[in-house]
Amino acid sequence: MSTLLVIDDNAGVAQALALLFSLEGWDTRHADSPEKGLEVLANEPIDLVVQDMNFTADTTSGEEGVALFRAIRARHPDLPVILMTAWTQLQSAVELVKAGACDYLAKPWDDRKLVATVANLLELGQANRQLQQVRGRERRERESLASRFDLCGFVYDDPASERVLTLATQVARSDLPILITGPNGAGKERIADIVRANSSVRNGAFVTVNCGALPAELIEAELFGAEAGAYTGANKAREGKFEAADGGTLFLDEIGNLPASGQMKLLRVLETGRFSRLGSNRERQVKVRVISATNADLAAMIRAGTFREDLYYRLNVLELRLPPLAERPRDILPLARSFLGPEKMFSEGACQALRAYSWPGNVRELKNVCARAALLTAGDTVQASDLGLRDLDGRPGGDDLELDRDSVEAALKRAHGVIAQAAQELGLSRQALYRRMERFGISRGK
Within this chain, do residues 280 and 165 fall inside the same structural domain, yes or no? Predict the structure, then answer.
C-alpha cells in the first residue's frame, strides 16, 4: 500500500484528501505545518507528498511553500511532491515545478485530475525505483569490469556495449583468432585495442593494417614483406606486418578486402605460423595474435565466391559483434559529452536531437559533429541548431526536432491535463513540458 503525506494547515482539506485517497487504497498521513511534515518524512516511509503553499493566516505569497519544498527536495531528492494553492497567482508553484516539483493543482481541486496525477506519479515512482535498482546493478557491474580489466578509456553506458566489452575481456587471454564485426565507424579498432590490452601479449607490438586502404597488388607485400626486386619499385628488402607484430598482436581491419592470393597465404600463416616474403622461398616463423575486423557480410561473400570459407572459419573462431550506435542509444550522450570536452555543455534540445538522430556514420560521425559544434558554438552551451544534423533522407535535425504546439496540446488532452502523464508520452521531463507550454502560451486549465 502506498502512503501519502498531506502537509496543510486546514484540517478539512486534509480530511477530504484522506477520504479521496482511501477510495483508491492509499494510506494518508497529515501534518498541519512544514515542521511537522518534515518530522513525518524523517521518521516514516512516504511515497508522495501533497503540500500547501501557505500556512500562516492571511498569507498569500507562497514563500512558506517554497521554503518547505526546498527543504523536502534537499532531504529527499527523489520524493514526488504535488503543490496545492488556493490563490490564482500561481507563479511560485510554476517556478517550483521548473525546479523539480512534480505538479501543481489549484484549490478547489478536480478529484479525477488529482487521483490521476497521484496514480501516475506513484506508478512512475515504482518504475523509477525498479529502474534505479537495475541501473545500480549495471553501475556495479561496470565498476567491477573496469577494476578487473584495462578498458582503454572506452566510454559507454549501454548494456549492449557492456556485453561486447565483457566478452572481449573474457576471450582476450586466449591465443585464438578473433573476428570483430560491425559497421564502419562503430569502434571496432577500440575493441581490438581492449583485447590486446588484456591479452597475454599486451606488452608486445600492436600492428594495424587497413586491408581496404591498400591496392590489391601491395597487400601481400604489406602483410608478409618482400625481397628486393620482388616487384617494381622494391629496391630493398622490407619487413612485413607479420614480422613487425611477432610476439604481439596484428589487427587486420577490413579483412573482407583481402584479395584471393592474400587470403590463401593468410590461411597458411594462421594454420602453421609460417610464411615467406614475396619473392623469397625462405620460410619465416612468427607467433602473432591475429584480430581481424570487417563491416562486410563475409557469409554472403563466401556464397559469391569472393572469400574463402576455410579462412572465414579460421578467423571467426571467436566473434565479437559491435552494434551500430543507433542500437546502443545510452552510449550517445556519454560519448558526445566526452567528445565535446569540459568547456561546453549541451542544451536540453541538443540532447534530444542527439538521441533522435539515426547516426548512419556511428561513433565516427558523432565525434565529428561534436568537434564541429565545439569549434563553431560561440557561447558555452551547444543548441540543437548548432549540431547541423541531417539524416540521409534530407530530414533536418536540430530545432526541427522540437515539439510543436499541436503535439503538446494533443498530449495534454489525451492525459486530461495531467502533466506527468503528458510529459512521459512526449518523452520530456515535466520541467521541459512546462517550458514548452510557457513558450507556446498554453494554459493547462483546471
Answer: yes
pLDDT digits (tens, 9 = 90+) for 253-279: 999 988 888 898 889 888 888 888 888
Is the distance from CB of 308 to CB of 268 less than 8 angstroms?
no
Q: Are 93 and 11 in a shared domain? A: yes
Give Cα 80 to chain centroid, integer Å. Answer: 25
- Asked, for residue 134, whether it belongs to a domain, the answer is no
**The pLDDT of residue 6:** 96
Query: Does any domain span residue 145?
Result: no
Mean pLDDT of 368-379: 93
Compute the distance between CA of residue 201 and CA of residue 172 in angstroms, rounded to an integer. 10
> Are 170 and 311 in the same domain?
yes
SS (H, E, C) 55-95: CCCCCCCCHHHHHHHHHHHHHCCCCCEEEEECCCCCHHHHH
- Bridge-based pairing state of the strands 103-106 and 81-85: parallel
**Same domain (yes/no): 253, 342:** no
Q: What CATH number is given to the structural domain containing 376?
A: 1.10.8.60
The mean pLDDT of 397-410, rounded to a whole number, is: 65
Does 239 share its domain with 357? no
Q: Quick one: 243 and 318 in the same domain?
A: yes
Q: Does residue 412 lie within any of the structural domains?
A: yes
**What band does 318 get if pLDDT is binned at 50, 70 and 90?**
very high
d(CA 5, CA 408): 31
Which cell numbers hold the place of 32? 498541519
Q: Given the C-alpha cell 515535466, which residue does it identify?
A: 430
Enumerate residues 6+ apart whose C-beta is below 8 A from 189. 208, 251, 253, 293
Reply yes or no: is the peptide bond before residue 108 cis, omega within 30 of 0: yes
Q: What is the pLDDT of residue 248?
A: 95
Host domain of residue 225: 152-323
Tell me, what's the pLDDT at 393?
Answer: 44
- Average pLDDT for the chain: 87
Please determine, for residue 425, whether its predicted confidence score (pLDDT) is greater than 50.
yes
Write the burial class of residue 127 (CB in 10 Å: 0-12 exposed, 13-18 middle, 19+ buried): exposed
- Rounded Cα gap, residues 292 and 91, in angstroms: 61
Cell 581491419 maps to which residue?
253
